[in-house]
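Example record

One chain of 233 residues, shown exactly as stored in the release files.
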Amino acid sequence: MATQDGPGQGRIRIISLSLPLRMGRVNCYLVRVNAGYVLIDTGSSKRRPELERELDSAGCEPGNLRLIVLTHGDLDHSGNAAYLRERFDTKVAMHRDDWGMVERGDMFWNRRRGIFQRLVGALVPVLSGFGRRERLVPDLQIEDGDDLSAYGFDAKVLSVPGHSRGSVAILAAGGDLFCGDLLTNIEQPALNSIMDDREAARASLERLKGMGIVTVYPGHGKLFRMELFTGSG
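Predicted structure tokens for this chain:
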């Protein structure tokens, strides 16, 4: 596990959790907002103790976690959402087009299915520890343009389909973009190589131009300055 604070005087705590079979890491972002916190993505359920330690260390506790936002339905991002909702008495928000993933524990609920996808879909819940207790019906349906200021977070929702139909990004005031799995920065900033609809992903990326994005916080890899992004992939 790796933890660090992002730019902005420590407003953003980056919580990096390992994935099974040495498949890399996934990022969760704990954002300090007015009167509490917002958590963007929740990691794999098999890494729950590490995540809880980081939340406790930051002072996130029942009563001040104002919202959990899932950028999409993949189990490495949603694995702790049901548990944290109950523990912190909070709400989970995500785009309606990915709800079936977390309701059924099926990453390919709304994606193309081939033999490889079926095999991955069967193995990932086992490897990540996503069982029936991790399934959930989200509390809030978020759409493109939604304002999160009611939760103390000066930010808006952007629909960025491509990795999945219901993928969203969160654009905060000041130019911080939490992009889910649209972009990665493992070796260098790039469009994610794993896409359900690459044409839709490119359109989503094109849409981000001119939005005043300064710093990108990807689901996988290190944060980067948007101005350095080459658009490769």
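Notes: The mean pLDDT is 90.
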